[in-house]
Write a structure and sequence with these properties.
Radius of gyration: 23 Å
Low-confidence stretches: none
Number of helices: 11
Distance between the termini: 49 Å
Mean pLDDT: 90
Oligomer: single chain
Helix content: 10-25%
Largest sheet: 7 strands, antiparallel
Number of strands: 20
Shape: globular
């Protein structure tokens, strides 16, 4: 939230950022949902006449090379920049609960509602789905935002108004950093404490966060730790009981932040700046141009796999290999596409780059022919640590405007041949059933 206008733009839209979102819209038929807030929402105050935002940052350190703002003051013009998102974007905005400043939260909410009532945003079909009231309140007693005695019974969502049972916009509840799965900060305990009564009746979804590690004290993480099949799956399965409890209340469940290192990433693993080194966090002599990073290709691949029909259903494919994951994408009960991921890290110190062969088998279903041929599209990367030089089906998104460039390179082969997938490679298969 403290750098939101760097992404969106101030008096005109950031064309590079817009293009990267619009690329996904072209693949899926709708732009990605955007959440603006997180930690810095609980350090945000409102003054109507502030031009966009005034942020106070601590100096970068080796432990925290990409610090968040200590304080942000925003005005109406700040929330109005939502208009620079692609048309039909669904948005979540966070407001300040952590500082227990009811006035700030109410003023922020009023300004957000005002922005979404503007002609430009309404004509673009940009929609406010949720107001997130505070980020990770279960950590407030640890990060100094609330006293050490702060507990679930003191947490509530009554700090913002302008919503009603008939309004589209609802509250996003919880946004916990973890879960006790019982007493303490958990969806189950929150429901028992009466979360869904009073203003809480307007909660439509519960969100939780799960990081694979932390860089908060400067402890370096390994890239391989983010790529293991068991860790990625475990980031979701650890919340199974919470998910069941949430769905039982008729609410949606959102895994809002996951599979990365907390405290703004770790140098060399999750570089997130144009002004500091991606290797050690040291200042750069000049900012680098806007560019996509390898993670962006994951969004492109997911978008292509989902497709633009609006009918895709996803099912994990059972693969008896600890480093290979697979997901099938069905349309009208027919397997249309599949993604296969080899999460074994290929590094400079690795020896030979090994491959795993996959034979594809299909269960006979009456009235549905098994596919006979397939088109294969590959994500190619030199080393798992590379920050550039990737290609997806022979094409690149590492262009000056964020649009795809290069010639498409696909393979067509019989399904009976199976697939070979290298270490640190992703494959999208499109099946042909006739």
């Amino acid at each position: 939230m403290d750098r939101w206008t760097d992404w969106a733009g101030t008096t005109s839209r950031n064309e590079f950022f817009f293009n990267t979102l619009d690329n996904l819209k072209q693949l899926t038929g709708q732009p990605p949902h955007i959440r603006i807030g997180a930690n810095s929402e609980d350090h945000t105050n409102f003054r109507q006449d502030t031009e966009f935002a005034q942020a106070i940052f601590p100096p970068p350190t080796a432990t925290v090379p990409y610090p968040e703002a200590l304080n942000i003051t925003v005005g109406d013009s700040y929330y109005a920049t939502t208009r620079f998102l692609p048309p039909d974007t669904h948005v979540t905005w966070g407001v300040n609960l952590g500082q227990n400043n009811i006035t700030a939260a109410v003023l922020e909410t009023a300004s957000i509602v005002k922005a979404f009532s503007s002609r430009e945003i309404q004509e673009a079909g940009i929609v406010l789905d949720y107001l997130e009231i505070g980020n990770e309140p279960d950590l407030y007693k640890n990060n100094g935002l609330r006293p050490s005695t702060y507990n679930l019974s003191q947490w509530n969502v009554s700090v913002a108004g302008n919503l009603s049972p008939t309004s589209h916009t609802k509250f996003l509840g919880a946004s916990f950093a973890g879960s006790s799965h019982g007493a303490g900060f958990s969806p189950q305990s929150a429901f028992q404490e009466g979360l869904l009564t009073g203003p809480g009746k307007l909660i439509a979804a519960i969100s939780q966060h799960r990081y694979s590690g932390s860089f908060c004290t400067g402890d370096g993480g390994l890239l391989a730790d983010l790529m293991t099949k068991s860790t990625i799956r475990g980031n979701l399965t650890v919340f199974v009981s919470d998910i069941h409890a949430t769905l039982a209340q008729g609410l949606d469940y959102i895994l809002g932040e996951t599979n990365s290192y907390s405290c703004h990433g770790a140098p060399g693993i999750q570089p997130i700046t144009l002004t500091r080194s991606t290797l050690d966090g040291s200042p750069l002599p000049a900012p680098v141009p806007p560019h996509v990073q390898p993670q962006y290709y994951a969004a492109i691949i997911a978008g292509e796999a989902i497709g633009n029909t609006g009918r895709a259903q996803i099912l994990e494919i059972n693969i008896d290999n600890p480093q290979i994951a697979g997901y099938g994408f069905y349309e009208n009960a027919v397997l249309a596409r599949a993604v296969f991921i080899n999460s074994q890290t290929y590094l400079s110190e690795s020896t030979d780059r090994t491959s795993v062969h996959l034979d594809l088998g299909f269960t006979a279903v009456a009235g549905i022919d098994s596919p006979r041929s397939m088109t294969v599209k590959r994500l190619k990367i030199g080393l798992a640590t590379d920050v550039s030089g990737l290609t997806w089906g022979g094409q690149t998104y590492e262009t000056s405007d964020g649009r795809v460039g290069g010639s498409l390179d696909l393979e067509t082969k019989p399904v009976s041949n199976g697939l070979d997938i290298q270490e640190t490679e992703v494959i999208l298969v499109t099946f042909r059933h006739s």
